[in-house]
Design a protein that fits this description.
Layout lengths: L7 H11 L6 E4 L3 H11 L6 E3 L4 E2 L13 H5 L3 E2 L2 H9 L6 E4 L3 E2 L5 E2 L2 E3 L4 E4 L6 H7 L2 E5 L25 H4 L7 E5 L3 E5 L6 E6 L5 H6 L7 E7 L5 H26 L1
Helix pairs in contact: 1-2, 2-8
Length: 264
């Protein structure tokens, strides 16, 4: 906890939640994206429609799910549909306004790797893989990404293209016949980034309270570009912080309880 009264991770989650609107239909990734989406639902966007890859639509979990197969998602959903219908009708049908993803590796053009670190045939680390993320990245109307900054994660060149962002930049998505916007927002624990309108390279548009340009560059694997007019991200409000902390506390207690039941 910093002297500001909140952690960088809390600032990242709250900033990400603010990007969502009440009218959004959001395809939610597990982990940090799920926390951000549910804080939005519990604060300024109570009517947001949250969709998880397992087929749950309009879910309103009381605790954060451990995976897309968590029973909490199905139990609190308006309805649950087969996964093929989820992708064919909802996602490929253009009904998802925002796909909210995380990343193990990310480059300056919003391309995501969640497959392997190192050579594909002889990797240093085998990651969970893409799941539905590659399709989410191309079929959602736009993509938001959230991740903690590190040189290991934000790299000049990703080791594997799991989810396509803006490719090599410019109009590559359009040239490939992809008519959705792609990554339009990156929220890290230090800053808010948006793609340059022409090059599509992520550019820092807002620094979080207490963060510096030097910190952002030190934790990024490519030369960072900063907007000419750099904003400061508003600090979390008391409501946003209490909502996030209560949600995480409930989730921790629930998941620890599950672990104790399995050990019994």
């Amino acid at each position: 906890m910093s002297e500001l009264g909140f952690t960088p991770d809390e600032m990242m989650t709250v900033a990400a939640s603010r990007a969502l609107k009440n009218t959004d239909v959001c395809f939610v990734g597990i982990g940090a994206p799920s926390a951000a989406c549910n804080v939005a639902r519990l604060t300024h966007a109570p009517d947001i429609t949250l969709i998880y890859e397992s087929g749950t639509i309009g879910t309103a979990p009381d605790v954060l799910p451990l995976s897309i197969g968590d029973g909490e998602l199905c139990e609190t959903a308006v309805t649950t549909v087969p996964v093929p219908e989820m992708f064919r009708y909802w996602l490929q049908g253009g009904r998802i306004t925002v796909g909210f993803l995380g990343a193990a590796q990310l480059d300056r053009f919003g391309n995501i790797n969640t497959t392997v670190i190192g050579d594909y045939d002889d990797p240093k680390v085998r990651l969970p893989g893409g799941g539905g993320a590659p399709e989410i990245a191309t079929s959602s109307q736009e993509i938001y990404i959230t991740m903690k900054q590190s040189r290991r994660g934000m790299v000049d060149k990703i080791d594997f293209f799991t989810s396509f962002g803006h490719g090599e930049g410019g109009d590559e998505r359009e040239r490939l016949g992809i008519d959705t916007k792609g990554p339009t927002l990156l929220i890290t624990d230090l800053a808010i980034w948006k793609p340059d309108p022409e090059t599509k390279e992520f550019t820092v548009v807002s620094l979080h309270p207490g963060a510096t340009r030097e910190q952002v560059q030190e934790t990024c694997g490519w030369p960072v570009k900063f907007a000419d007019t750099l904003d400061e991200t508003p600090a979390p409000t008391a409501e946003e912080l209490s909502t996030l902390r209560d949600l995480r506390a409930r989730s921790k207690a629930a998941h620890e309880g599950i672990g104790k039941e399995k050990d019994a």
